Amino acid sequence: NDPNFVDAYLNRARVRVKNNNPTGAIEDLAAVDKLVSSNPMVYVLLAQAYLELNDPASALNYAQIGYELDKTSLLAHLTLAKVYLAKNDSKDTLQYIETYLTYVTDDADGWAIKTQAEFQLGNFTEALAASYQGIAADAENAPSWYYRGLIHLDQGDTRTAVNDLVNAVNFDQENFAYSIALGKALWADERLSQASRQFDGAELLAVNDRQLAEVYYDRARVYEQATNLTKALQDWELLLALPPDQVPAYWRTYAQEHMDIINPSTPTDTPTRTPIHNDIGTLTPTPIIPITPTPPKLP
Predict the structure, then answer these.
(1) Roughly what angle, to the nearest 10 degrees, separates helices 74-86 and 108-120?
(2) Going by C-beta distance under 8 Å and a sequence separation of 6 or more, which residues neighbour residue 241?
(3) Which residue of 80, 152, 155, 222 is 20 to 30 Å from 24, comparing CA positions?
(4) Is residue 119 predicted with pLDDT exceeding 60?
(5) Which residues have a Cβ under 8 Å from the Cβ of 177 and sit 6 or more positions away?
(6) H or E segment at 155?
(7) For the chain, how big is the Rg over CA atoms in Å?
(8) Contact at 8 Å (CB) between 226 and 193?
(9) In terms of Cα–Cα distance, which of 193, 98, 176 is closest to 142?
(10) Residue 226: is its pLDDT beyond 60?
């Protein structure tokens, strides 16, 4: 029961969670549990490890145990907020992150969690205010820039949205959601050439067919608006070549209709085209957006 061993295992577990080695962290925490029982930090760190393993159900179980063992733990509050956000439970996320931010006012990632939760609840005023707090705490906090950009885009302030999303992309260049959102903002700001190039970049970041479908659907409509019908046709064909269950039915119908307009199977004396609408749709955040706050020191 040497406390030095306990602290050593806990410290290494913290580092392993932070460095994306959740399995190693779980091994260290199991060793701690053999030395001392009912240590709240063990359960809080287990929750973080299982969250890294994409197991929010187990993460919630351990986070709740850790919280019950020490309701004054700010790290327990932060961890519960992260877990509830991963489970798309924005209301419970706010309950715990607001308590945390009352005492830790300069944690940019904490503000980013609040920003996302408020955004998902449709509380854009509160989300915008939280995003400013996150950026004030850390000017390179990509999630805060991202949600600020989405809000400005929703408000029709396309130029500011572009600037916000450029920052988000610059600070997290491998994030598909940030990249495609910037493409949509450039499109809304009528910078069609830049928008199509940004969608090219998003295509390289896509990790599944659903993301590729979004790229093809948006980029094809940008090409149509730019009257580059050859490129538009290529994207419509790529969209329809994807597995049907990965493409919304409306997108498939829209693609087929526009392919028929661009390249009709039966020529007519007077070919006509239906109007192309610059409908970028409603931007909504997805739960896969990685926000991993750095745990603060406990008071």
Answers:
(1) 40
(2) none
(3) 80
(4) yes
(5) 146, 285, 286, 288, 289
(6) none
(7) 23
(8) yes
(9) 176
(10) yes
